[in-house]
User: What shape does this take?
Amino acid sequence: MVFFWHIPWHNTIEHKPQDMDREIDEKQLKRSRRRSWTRIAIILALLVLAFWAFRSWLSPSADARDFRMATVERGALESTIAATGTVTPSFEQQLNAPIATQVKTVHLRSGTEVEQGDLILELDKSFLLLDVAARRGQLDLRKNSIDLLQLELDRDLKELEYDDEIKGLQVAAAEAALTDAKRLEKIGGATAEEVEQAETRLQILRLEKAKLENELNYRRNSLAGRRREVVLEANIQEQELQELENKLDLTEVRAPGPGVITWVNENIGEQVPEGKPLVRIADLRSFQIEAYCSDRYADRIAVGQAIKVRLNEENLNGQITNILPAVANNTVEFLVALEKPDHPQLRPNMRLEVYVVTDRKADVLKVRQGPVFKGGLRQKVFAVRGTEAELLDVRTGISNGDYIELLTNELSVGDKIIISDTRDYEHTNRLKLN
Assistant: This one.
């Protein structure tokens, strides 16, 4: 900056052409010189002020209390991918409709803690009661038919046994007759034809007895088989009746154990088919994390990877146990098993910060994360040097939600850098800190 100042030197000496020989007044001359030097001093002061103003414009100042600062450290660092997670119970039991019926009464709502046996809702069981009564009547008839069949079986077998005994007596009489005929033939009291007829009759009676015994054995087996068939049918009917009676008990939906109701069908009067979910009860003694992150990290996520979960001021460790194959809304979902699934601070549906560990270095130069780091491989940061902050261009490495790696020789352990957003001071290389 250059200043031009016109100094009226012609006023320092007064010329009086009419009296050139007269001596100039000495006091007036000194006064004129003093005024000239005063003007020069003012000009120099203005030049100095202008210089300092220009320097101040090049090096702006700011209040150090307006910035967040962090100290450069050295130590281990893990590279992570940020994700969002929701706490869910590790085990959740679903109770389904035992029959096709209607929701009659809802006793407990979602979010209610229950103990084993607590009644949650009731289903309409009027039709089931009618069906149970009808099947019980059919079973009674079947059992009665079994008794009748047993009586018929006993009667038929008894008759066949009597016939067999009678046939046995007839065979014995024929044997005696044949013996008599042979004895008479020897003494001439009977002919050979009579003996032959007696033998033929005995042979016929023996065959008839064998046929009768075979029929008796067949009837024993067949009648016993018929009875077993009817008994089996009765048993099947009894099992079906028992199932219906069990379903009748299940129309009163009760908690199978301690937990909390995460969902219940509260639509009273709604027709529900058999097998439709009615209630979900979660075990609050163990939890897992359902997490999701951007699908651009899909190739960096794998089953078994270590996980860090931020729970208030504490970090919980875990690992990925399952990755859902479908990608929805540009996100990848995965399940996380925790090392402490029974942590006392975990609550259902709690939203937590989840970090997937993708890399780890044992000894790096690092500093806490802040708005100044915008994700680039190179980053301009202000390093505090006494009462000034110097702008440095540094390379960055792996990072997580807390720290970022610094790849530079211009910083060392103990240095302080500004981690606040400094975009308003990007035009200057130095910043005064008041």
